[in-house]
Amino acid sequence: MGSMIQKTITLAANTPTQISSKKNSRKYLGIINLGTGVVHLGVGVPAVVNAGWPLDPPVAFGGQGGGIVYEDGEIPSQEVNAVSATGATVIIQEMT
Questions:
Q1: Beta carbons within 8 Å of 73's beta carbon, 6+ residues apart
Q2: Each residue of 6-52: pLDDT tens digit?
Q3: N or C: which end of the chain has fewer CB within 10 A?
Q4: What does DSSP assign to residue 52?
Q5: Which superfamily is assigned to 4-95 in CATH?
Q6: Which burial class, exposed, middle or buried, applies to 92 when counting CB atoms under 10 A from its CB (0-12, 13-18, 19+)?
Q7: Edge-to-edge strands, sheet with 4-11
């Protein structure tokens, strides 16, 4: 079994941010939006507001927002980028 890493990342408004680097050894990747704004992901490409994979904010403050889990044969090895027009907080879990 690999090692699990969890990070909380704050995204500034309209600032594309790399939330995970390229990893060929990645075995699991989970991303959850805990912020108040929509987060857009770019996997292997830059993140762009209103493009890519959207993760909705939670319905209630502090609740679980939109999330995505990659596991089994669908785990990207490319870098993962995120952006939010209004800013947000994401939690990322990775196993390598």
A1: none
A2: 999 999 999 999 999 999 999 999 999 998 899 999 999 999 999 99
A3: N
A4: S
A5: Jelly Rolls (2.60.120.10)
A6: middle
A7: 4-11, 88-95, 28-33, 67-70
